[in-house]
Amino acid sequence: MNEVGAVHPSYIANCVLNAITAYTAIVLNVITIHAMRKTSSLPSLLKVLLLSLAVSDLGVGLVVQPFYIAWLVKRIQQNSASTVSNPSYTMDTAFLTIMNLFSCASFFSVLALSVDRFLAIHLHLRYREFVTYKRVVFAVVSIWVFSAFFSSIKLWTPASITKSLTVVVALLFGLCFICTTVIYYRIYLTVRRHRHHIQSVHEELVATQNDEISLEISGEISGEISTNVVTVRKSALGTFYVYLVFMLCYMPGYCMMIARMIASEANIAMKGFDPYAWTLVFVNSSLNPVIYCWKMRHIRHAIMDMLRNILANRN
Question: N or C, which terminus of the chain has less Cβ within 10 Å?
C-alpha cells in the first residue's frame, strides 16, 4: 500500500467523524450556555469560567471543525497517485491559527477552573475576599487575549525559529498539565483534611456538651460547615471530570507533537494517526456539556426545565 492509500481512509473517516461531532458540539454547547445564563443558583464566579469554556467549545464546533473538514477534503483532492502533497500555505496557516485560538482558550479555561476550585476549597471562608468577580472576568479576558496572541505567533515569526518555538510551546503545555494534576491532588488532600476536621469538631462538641440545646446548636453549626464543604467539593468533582476528559482527549495530540519534534520526518503511521489525534481534541468540545449535565446539579436542572418548557409549548 502506498502512502496515499494509507492516509486516504483516515482522512475520509475523520471527515465523517468531524461532521457528526461538530453538530453535537454546536447544539449541546448552545443549550449549555443558555442554561448557564438562566441558572441563578450557580455561583457567579464559577459561571463565568464555565461560560468561557463553553464558548470556546462552541467555537470549535462552529468554526474549527468545519474548517478542518475543508482542510482534509483539500488534502484528499491534492493527493497524487503516489505522493501526499500539502494544501496551500495560506489555508494551512489559517486553519492552525483558528484551531490554536480555540484550543488554547479551552486549555487555559480548564486550568483556570482547577485553580478556582482549589482556592475555593483551600481558602474556604476567605475565598470571596480573594477571588472577586472583577478578578475572574479579568482572568477570562486575559485567557482569550493570550490565546489570540499565541495563535498568531506563526503569522509574524521567522521560519528559522519555528522549531524552537514549538519546543517552548511543548514545554509550556507539559508544565500546565503537571500543574493541573498537582492542583487536583492538592484539592483531594484538602477535602479529605476538611472532612476529618469537621468530624473531629462534631465529636468534640458532642463529648463536651451534655444538654440538648447545646447539642442542637453544635449540630447546626457543624451541619452548616459540612454543607458548604460538600457543595464546594461537588463542584470541584465536576470540574475534575472536565479535566480528566480533557486530558484523555488532548494527550494523544500532545504526544504526536512530541513525536514530530523527535522524528526528522513523519512516517506513514504518524500521518495516518494525526487526523484521529486532532479529531479527539475536537471531540472534547462535545463531551464537556455532557459532563456539565451529569455532574453539576444546577446546570442539569436548568437544562431539564428548558426541555420541559419546549415540550409543553409544542403540546
Answer: C
